[in-house]
Amino acid sequence: MTASLVTLGDQRFVSLTTFRRSGDPVATPVWVARDGDGLVVYTSAESGKVKRLRHDAQVELRACDRRGRVAPGTPTVEATAVVDDADGAVDDAEDLLRAKYGWEFGGIRLLQAAERVFRRGGPPRERVVLRLTVA
């Protein structure tokens, strides 16, 4: 793992910038965890970032705050993202994120369960893992 990814892996929040077909950037604050030589992100399979990544795997990563605000002068890391929906990938990523974020991650899982109840017991939203490596 490169030093830049190690540094980003230590951050509470990372701004993940994906790109529309037009080339316009879309930044989203995400949680990340280290996994081998890269970072993982846990997200909904229907999210905009997943749709954009299916067309352009290049991303930019920057340390940010909870609201996605990036401090002036924060370095940008160019990376490649791969959408991983393989069996076990989501469970493994959940374990890594739970170890890093603790009760906060548990709270997110609780909100996801509540969402299913309010959607009248519909099927859970499919989750995927984004695997981020230096380009």
Automatic annotation (TrEMBL):
UniProt keyword terms in alphabetical order: Oxidoreductase
GO CC, one annotated term: cytosol
Domain Pyridoxamine 5'-phosphate oxidase N-terminal: 9-133
Family matches, as Pfam families: PNPOx_N (PF01243)
Domain of life: Bacteria
UniProt xrefs under InterPro entries: F420H2_bilvrd_red/Heme_oxyg, PPOX_F420-dep_Rv2061_put, Pyridox_Oxase_N, Split_barrel_FMN-bd
Molecular function GO labels: coenzyme F420 binding; oxidoreductase activity, acting on the CH-CH group of donors
Alphabetized Gene3D superfamilies for the sequence: Electron Transport, Fmn-binding Protein, Chain A
PANTHER family: HEME OXYGENASE HI_0854-RELATED (PTHR35176), PYRIDOXAMINE 5'-PHOSPHATE OXIDASE FAMILY PROTEIN (PTHR35176:SF11)
UniProt-recorded name of the protein: Pyridoxamine 5'-phosphate oxidase N-terminal domain-containing protein
Species in which this protein is naturally found: Actinomycetospora corticicola
